[in-house]
Amino acid sequence: MQLTAQEIDIGSRSPTVLLNTADAAELGVHQLDRVQIEHDGRISIGIVEFTDELVDPGTLAVTRRLGHLSGPVEVIPAPQPRAVHYIKKKLDDIELDKPELHRIVLDIKEDRLSDVELGAYVAATYTNGLSLEETMHLAECMAEVGDAIEWEDTAVVADKHSIGGVAGNRVTPIIVPIVAAAGVKIPKTSSRAVTSPAGTADTMEVLCDVEFSLAEIKEIVTETNGCLVWGGSVNLSPVDDKIIRAETPLSIDPPGQIIASVLSKKKSAGSNHIVVDVPYGEGAKVESLAQARELAEDFKRVGDHLGMAIECTITRGSQPIGRGIGPVLEARDVLETLAGGGPEELRLKSVRLADILLGSCGCAEDATEILDSGRAMAAFRDILAAQGGDSDVTVDDLVPGRHELPVAADREGIVTHVDNRLVSDVARRAGAPKDKGAGMVLHCRVGDKIGVGDSLFTVHAESKEKLADAERLVERSETIRVRSRDEALVELV
């Protein structure tokens, strides 16, 4: 069928085309079918949407993702991508081989799958899981389709990753300068928040730039031994971000996909010695110790397959680590810890993970000494300067949102639980991570004795409206659980 193509100003991640309903019926295509478009000897594939309001009969509306198409075009039905067949196999719980997984990964990278088809892939891996062999192949394929950093002059390149799910777990900006100060390269690419109040990139953005090209990242690491940048600004395992986008609405994160996503990015960054933090506990992503151990073993096996030395730490994640939740408040915790203070749990966890990582890299330096001597702070300030930040920044320069909601205990007792999910939800309602100064400061931890009127936490916001939204959630939920002594003995045993 000959139609007239015209561009339409509608943003779309997939190569979408809009057909008038009458033209679609004549072509014999349905919603989300594909059509082949021939224009000036060039062939493109578009994913079909119907409309009667936006497109007249005889017209093919083309979104920007397909490039510049205008004028007469020849349009015929096109077959589904091969990846769709393999996704159906996975939905039927049939194990996929490497070529099949490679095709899925390639079609995701090239945006050949509709949102529904990508959602089906995520549902299949969540429902039926990925075998160890599938996970190994998937990690390889995800690394292969993106860019890669090569460190020609360095045999040992370190990295660190946390599975997530624990509020205030901002150990990365402390570990990176410790390792860098010890003379070990650690090119850390981190994510922005998806469902949390802050990712490492959000926190670092309070202090410096985080978006750099691969060449700029290499230059920063060559100069300082480390970096703390946003991974989304470079093309390292780009399929991972697209899969995460499909997982987010249902808050699902299949174990096999977690492993493939994490290790494909580390492989692409050129890292070969990695510490993976696996927090477990009530409210964390991994709830039981048995699940944490199984995930850690699989990380090591897949790492071996990829030629990477993986050390996994299984840590308690049933409550937040730092005091601050939200970009500015977490940045304050980081600076305080590097200066020798900060929340005790944040310091202890950072030092422990740094020691394990240094040991894995064959470095005999002591993380505590590096931190206490001020070498880690000096390395951190060097990284800030290299990333365009203020290397003289202090805690006093980081001001949280001026609108505050102090929350006090209405009963006497012992803190038995600080809910990670609710802490994150309250901080996000207050505006984090978009509003850098929004979030929450915690004033107690599990096991603390509390009296009536004692402060539990303070919510910060940059607007009254968002503070009111956070307050409504606080009023109808139990963010921090306080129980009598007898009840606490039962819960804490």
Automatic annotation (TrEMBL):
<dbReference type="GO" id="GO:0005829">
    <property type="term" value="C:cytosol"/>
</dbReference>
<dbReference type="InterPro" id="IPR036566">
    <property type="entry name" value="PYNP-like_C_sf"/>
</dbReference>
<keyword id="KW-0808">Transferase</keyword>
<protein>
    <recommendedName>
        <fullName>AMP phosphorylase</fullName>
        <ecNumber>2.4.2.57</ecNumber>
    </recommendedName>
</protein>
<dbReference type="Pfam" id="PF07831">
    <property type="entry name" value="PYNP_C"/>
</dbReference>
<feature type="domain" description="Pyrimidine nucleoside phosphorylase C-terminal">
    <location>
        <begin position="414"/>
        <end position="481"/>
    </location>
</feature>
<dbReference type="GO" id="GO:0004645">
    <property type="term" value="F:1,4-alpha-oligoglucan phosphorylase activity"/>
</dbReference>
<dbReference type="InterPro" id="IPR017459">
    <property type="entry name" value="Glycosyl_Trfase_fam3_N_dom"/>
</dbReference>
<dbReference type="InterPro" id="IPR017872">
    <property type="entry name" value="Pyrmidine_PPase_CS"/>
</dbReference>
<dbReference type="InterPro" id="IPR000053">
    <property type="entry name" value="Thymidine/pyrmidine_PPase"/>
</dbReference>
<keyword id="KW-0328">Glycosyltransferase</keyword>
<dbReference type="InterPro" id="IPR017713">
    <property type="entry name" value="AMP_phosphorylase"/>
</dbReference>
<dbReference type="GO" id="GO:0046125">
    <property type="term" value="P:pyrimidine deoxyribonucleoside metabolic process"/>
</dbReference>
<dbReference type="InterPro" id="IPR036320">
    <property type="entry name" value="Glycosyl_Trfase_fam3_N_dom_sf"/>
</dbReference>
<dbReference type="InterPro" id="IPR013102">
    <property type="entry name" value="PYNP_C"/>
</dbReference>
<dbReference type="GO" id="GO:0016763">
    <property type="term" value="F:pentosyltransferase activity"/>
</dbReference>
<dbReference type="InterPro" id="IPR000312">
    <property type="entry name" value="Glycosyl_Trfase_fam3"/>
</dbReference>
<dbReference type="Pfam" id="PF00591">
    <property type="entry name" value="Glycos_transf_3"/>
</dbReference>
<dbReference type="Pfam" id="PF02885">
    <property type="entry name" value="Glycos_trans_3N"/>
</dbReference>
<dbReference type="InterPro" id="IPR035902">
    <property type="entry name" value="Nuc_phospho_transferase"/>
</dbReference>
<dbReference type="InterPro" id="IPR013466">
    <property type="entry name" value="Thymidine/AMP_Pase"/>
</dbReference>
<dbReference type="GO" id="GO:0006206">
    <property type="term" value="P:pyrimidine nucleobase metabolic process"/>
</dbReference>
